[in-house]
Amino acid sequence: MNKPSILPSIQSPEDLRSLSLPQLERLATEMREVLCNLVSSRSAHFASNLGVVELCIALHQTFDFRHDRLIWDTGHQIYPHKLVTGRYPQFNSMRAKGGLMGYPNPEESEYDLFMTGHAGASVSTALGLASGDELLRDNDQRWSVAVIGDGAFPSGIVFEALNNVGRSSKRLLIVLNDNKMSICPRVGGMADYLDRLRMNRMYSGLKEEVVKVLGKVPLLGDPVERFLAQIKEAAKAGLHGGMLFEDLGLHYFGPIDGHNIGLLRKYLRMVRSVEGPVLLHVVTEKGHGFRPAAEDPVTFHAPPQFEQRVGDVVQMKKSSARAFTHAASAAIFDQMKSNPRVTVLTAAMCQGNNLERVREAFPDRFFDVGICEGHAVAFAAGQAKVGLRPIVDIYSTFLQRSFDQIFQEVALQNLPVTFMLDRGGLAGPDGPTHHGVFDLSYLRVFPHMVVMAPADENDLTQMLGLALQHAAPCAIRYPKAALPTIHAERKPVEFGKSEVLSWGEDGIVLCGGALLVECLKAADMLLKEGLHVGVVNARFIKPLDEETILRAVRECGFVATVEEGSLMGGFGSAILEVVSKAGLDTSHLRRLGIPDKFVEHGERGELLADLDLDANGIAAACRKLAAERAAGAQQPVVVANGVIH
């Protein structure tokens, strides 16, 4: 007879405390099955979540995170945590519009403290929590725990936090989840250092205080003597391992097996008896428990939906649609092939940016710096200074992390670094932590910076060629979307010039980027209703084609600007600046884009429709503008006391 499932009975982490070790291990198996079922219905983060199931269970059984504090760094590994914190009934809504977020969300649960979607900040925030509790005298044995992966660990902000850890509360725990991976295989000296520590199978330091503390740990199946014997197997390593962390003021323990719930519980309970900040080095396997994901954690990081699954054999849903990312990587490949001075840098996003072919063909000119975006940009500046033409290929939302390096090392020096911003605009189910909607605003403020927004592959390919010939920094931003087909006679990309696809006396739409196809659809809809609305592909956000813009404002009944970016300081704001400078009336100009709010997660098409940025929304805005214009023309102009009414 099959035993009843355990997971449906877990309404909060308190329910874990009554379970035996075999029951907890069975629960881990059930949780992995639920994760597999989720990916059978939609694309979701997968391998990283499979790897932290036991760690999540052990943490929640050892600590009470209604009272203690828990931060999951790079929160895409949050799914097991959501399963044991009362969200199992809603789990199938993960990443769907209106459903659970694929990252921690304080609005969902008291167990989620921060909405963490970018890597590295967990140690600093946990340090701040611990410090705050201490200052408010609210610590009351309260622990602050940060779980951070080895891929995120080399981030600069982590070392900034470690540099200050000596001033921390005595109750700070950093759990280093070491699975030898970021999204792609990790790189750099820290990776090598952790590999050396991993070779020491059971190092724990062998210090007197460890032995004393272990004697106080309750027996949980294995005698303490056997546990200590396991530790002593690594006596030699115990004299040398973990010294970097020890020298920074941390008590270092590990590495230990992160899939052994009993062992994890022992160490976590031991940690609670240690005075001072602790780093617990836990070794896990990304994709653990599902063979295809364990063997290929890169592909299974966030795989396409499982179309068919029988046990460990899966067939993933394939899309034949070519995306902007594919066009960008092909253009980069061609430029590197023709110009030996071109290099490409990415920050742990080789696969996400589809750069595997580039890496294999040009290994000497391909640089994956890990999750260190600020370093990537400053590194590129150094290359540009000596005459190379570096391309920094980074998601829009992640390039924000290098804002100061863009300013100081690139723009201020006027160096020819080319930025390729993937995921510019709405990033779909990844939600507000990943929407790349601020790039136009934060890039166009810098002198010398050229900002381009291609509407299709034709634009993107020519823009990259232009950028690599230009003697100043350039940025090209494009969305996570399928490449559109634009049925119109096209003009070559010319520096600082827009592309007029049609002109309309009733009104005109100025489009900054990949929503051009929606603008053209809207114009076709309006034409059938008798409204002649033109469409202009701006191509350049900076410098703007002022001649075409001012002509549109003077000649057309209304002007609508369209962008898949923030209205605060974006493309539409730039248009207003040009018109204001020329002293022209702006009453017939409207801006369509992302309002001053964080946009939820959902499919890109759903979100565009909600924001009135699809063809129907753009057409509706144009109808309203045309109606307002017509009504204004019929109203008599009355001047009273010098004021026009």
Structural features, described:
By secondary structure, the chain is α/β, with parallel strands linked by helices. The chain folds into three domains: 7-295, Rossmann fold; 321-415, Rossmann fold, CATH 3.40.50.970; 423-645, Rossmann fold (3-Layer(aba) Sandwich). Helix content is 37%, strand content 16%. The protein is built from 25 helices and 21 strands. The chain has a seven-stranded mixed β-sheet, sandwiched between helices. Strands 1-2-3-5-4 form a five-stranded parallel β-sheet, sandwiched between helices. Strands 14-16-15-18-19 form a five-stranded mixed β-sheet, sandwiched between helices. Helix 21 packs across helix 25. The longest helix has 20 residues, at 615-634. The protein is globular, with a radius of gyration of 28 Å. The relative contact order is 0.08.
- Sequence of strands across the biggest β-sheet: 9-8-10-11-13-12-17
- The CATH homologous superfamily of the largest domain is called Thiamin diphosphate (ThDP)-binding fold, Pyr/PP domains
Q: Classify the secondary structure makeup into a structural class.
A: alpha/beta
Name the CATH architecture of the largest domain.
3-Layer(aba) Sandwich
CATH topology of the largest domain: Rossmann fold
Would you report the number of β strands?
Answer: 21
Approximate shape: globular
CATH class of the largest domain: Alpha Beta
Strand content: 15-25%
What's the Cα radius of gyration?
Answer: 28 Å
Whole-number average pLDDT?
87
Specify the number of helices. 25
User: What does the largest sheet look like?
Assistant: 7 strands, mixed
> Uncertain regions: pLDDT < 50 for 5+ in a row?
201-211, 219-240, 636-645
